[in-house]
Amino acid sequence: MARPAAYGRLLAAAWTLARHDALLPVELEAQYPPPIRDLGRTLRLLAGKQARDGRPGERLARALVQLGPVAIKLGQLLSTRADIFGAPFAEDLSRLKDRLPPFPAEIARAQVEAALGAPIETQFSEFGEAVAAASLAQAHDARLRDGRRVAVKVLRPNIGVRVAQDSAALAQAAQLVARYVPAARRLEPLAFAQTVIRATELELDLRLEAAGCDELGEVMARDGYMAAPAVIWEGVGKQVLTLEWAPGAPLSDPAALELPGLDRPTLASNLLRAFLSQALDHGVFHADLHEGNLFVEAPAKITAVDYGIVGRLGPDERRYLAEILWGFLDRDYPRVAEVHFRAGYVPAHHDRAAFAQALRAVGEPVFGRAASQVSMSRVLIQLFEITALFDMHLRPELVLLQKTMMTVEGVARRIDPDHDIWAAADPVVRRWIARELAPPAQAKRLAQESLDILQGLKRRLQAPEPTVAVVTTPERDSGWLWFFLGALTTGGAFLLGALA
Ligand SMILES: Nc1ncnc2c1ncn2[C@@H]1O[C@H](COP(=O)(O)OP(=O)(O)O)[C@@H](O)[C@H]1O
Ligand SMILES: [Mg+2]
Fold it and tell me: What's the 23 CA to ligand 1 centre distance in angstroms?
């Protein structure tokens, strides 16, 4: 099915890429068949000298920023795939700056009034100029009628139409790539394009960002390593988000680190522990923790803004992460190997001892060097590279986690050059292990599983017609097994508790 408009946009996009030598980059020339090589050379000639400035990742980042919000999101997601493109390319791409000139405050005010369905004065006593502007939205400094200072984020006018057009072009491009570029198959272009489109669409509804901020605010308040600004729900709509103004100075301002009374080592630890405990303890994390989104106050308080990207880890991934970190902290490679096999990440036909040996190759160099020199996110990347040799398929959630860890580590080290990420992570990881792998927690989990099964049974017995679920025999069989094991363990745990 031909979509002429989408093809037109694609051609224009291809030319923008070519102008930055990001379409057929010179660095990959040796891999092209002769006609493609000639085409690449011609494009570079037409594009002129500027095409050759910088590394491929930097050139691609420049081109994507010109191409607009969907392309920017594409770049941000591609930069998480260091496992495919290598760390230097991913790092260059991840520095892509989504900053544009703002649109007039008048238009923003009109957008806010449309969202509130009332004149702006009913909510705000002041509504100032934009303080920051990006491809999807911009933020304004404002004051509520009760005097509280707030930040109001407003979507760009008509951005939905633009995103829809670009999404159609991207979907088309993905089809072409899937068909004609066999080397790209590992990335699964069609699924990847859908992820990009979906992620952009989600960011076009600021009510979701409000909910992300609210949820993470609750989670962060539990251990106090980090805080989120309060959501002003009266000022939230699809196109508008109102948050309390974050206290302190943005970390992107170099003066922030010179604040009197600032405890830099604690600040760095708080940042890392905040991230790890969000991911491990709660399975939900702020996935865009760069300096521009972090505000600091003396002695070591951090407030994070910008909840457009929230990462989630299921119980299995959390357990996997805690156990590999624990394994590496204790240098217990057979244990880390065991975790991979048990989780089914590595197919069972591989040799566990050989896999443990590969893990040792990742872990041991870590412990020969000063801890401040060893990057946890690099260890994870290497781990992912090695696991690829053992046919491990990476879960996208873990890739986003690894990428956020890379950002967090970089920021922590700029706050405190001696930051020891392993020492900072240790208490959070051990707390998790002690809680989740201790017998009471296991008994609780089994009890919960048996309860779920009982509930399921009850529903089935009550259902007048057999439901589809009844037909899935393997589940039913293992369900009974779990029920008995659960009952046995729960009973045992109670007995032990009574005896003790
Ligand atoms: N609650 C807030 N308090 C203070 N400044 C804020 C707040 N929210 C946003 N900002 C400022 O506006 C900038 C852009 O907002 P952000 O939510 O990060 O949007 P984007 O997704 O475009 O990065 C932030 O980097 C920060 O400087
Ligand atoms: Mg931001």
Answer: 33
